[in-house]
From TrEMBL:
Alphabetized Gene3D superfamilies for the sequence: 3.30.450.40, Winged helix-like DNA-binding domain superfamily/Winged helix DNA-binding domain (1.10.10.10)
PANTHER family named among the record's database cross-references: HELIX-TURN-HELIX TRANSCRIPTIONAL REGULATOR, ICLR FAMILY, HTH-TYPE TRANSCRIPTIONAL REPRESSOR ALLR
Keyword rRNA-binding attached: no
SUPFAM superfamilies: GAF domain-like (SSF55781), Winged helix' DNA-binding domain (SSF46785)
Record's keyword terms, sorted: DNA-binding, Transcription, Transcription regulation
Source species: Rhodococcus globerulus
Domain (IclR-ED) ranges: 75-255
A Pfam short name: IclR_C
Name used for this protein in its record: IclR family transcriptional regulator
Domain of life: Bacteria
Record-linked InterPro entries: GAF-like_dom_sf, HTH_MetabolicPath_Reg, Tscrpt_reg_IclR_C, Tscrpt_reg_IclR_N, WH-like_DNA-bd_sf, WH_DNA-bd_sf
Length: 256
């Protein structure tokens, strides 16, 4: 079925919101949509939805995909790059602080940021004693496992957390579920730091603290070390350094 001409103009604030809502339906989990499915999702008529799709195609944000469906185009990458450019240079600010902490404890130090339903490693300063960690730079990790990710999960609203955890919790062991209750995550959010034992990598302990900018959590910084070389005294020292590093980076970000 051909898309009606975009000369059927969509106007008004309400229509603008619906147009943007249509675009925001396209996610990593649902990259393609038919017009009929979009209409159902947005509670619109098929005719109105065709108009929104036509406008988005006209400006180059949508294109045809298989089986009468549509996808976003590479033009949206410029929006992602604009988002990155507008953000404070987290990695640039954090690197010397991360390096200083790494030099003192000789363990890998990482910074992570949330993107949608995942945590991404923004930067990583390696220990001089090689440690195998799954969280590589640029890699997506689940929000419910590990101290770096859990800080970011805790910063979300209760409703956002519930939506994210709904399909995950039933498959987790009871000990892990205990750390992901609203009460536990609220406590993590209030304290601004947490620790983990073998949640992502076997034999690895980790700790992380929240990095904020103007009062909002924007990232987390943490370290990870083999349990066999991290007694309680050493863990306490690493927690102290990571929390101090988070506070220092947060103070610098507040200047932007």
């Amino acid at each position: 079925m051909p898309i009606p001409s975009s000369h059927n103009k969509v106007s008004g604030a309400g229509s603008s919101r619906k147009l943007l809502s249509a675009l925001l339906c396209f996610t990593e989990e649902r990259p393609t949509w038919t017009v009929a499915d979009l209409a159902t999702e947005l509670d619109l008529s098929v005719t109105s939805t065709y108009r929104y799709v036509a406008l988005l195609r006209e400006v180059g944000l949508l294109d045809s995909a298989a089986q009468n469906s549509y996808r976003v185009t590479d033009l949206v990458l410029s929006l992602a790059r604009a988002c990155e450019a507008a953000q404070a240079p987290l990695a640039e600010i954090g690197l010397p602080i991360m390096t200083r902490v790494r030099d003192e404890i000789d363990e890998t130090v990482l910074i992570a940021r949330r993107g949608g339903d995942a945590a991404y490693c923004v930067d990583r300063v390696e220990s001089r004693r090689p440690v195998r960690l799954q969280f590589d730079k640029g890699q997506a990790m689940s929000l419910h496992a590990g101290s770096l990710s859990r800080i970011l999960l805790a910063s979300m609203s209760r409703s956002e957390r519930a939506a994210h955890l709904a399909a995950i919790l039933p498959a987790l062991p009871s000990a892990r579920i205990t750390m992901l209750t609203d009460e536990a995550l609220d406590r993590t959010q209030a304290e601004g730091w947490t620790e983990s034992f073998e949640e992502v990598d076997e034999g690895i302990w980790g700790c992380a603290a929240a990095i904020t900018s103007h009062g909002a959590v924007v990232a987390s910084i943490g370290t990870a070390a083999p349990i066999f070389r991290s007694d309680q005294t050493r863990r306490d020292r690493m927690i102290e350094l990571i929390r101090g590093a988070a506070a220092e980076i947060s103070e610098l970000l507040d200047q932007y």
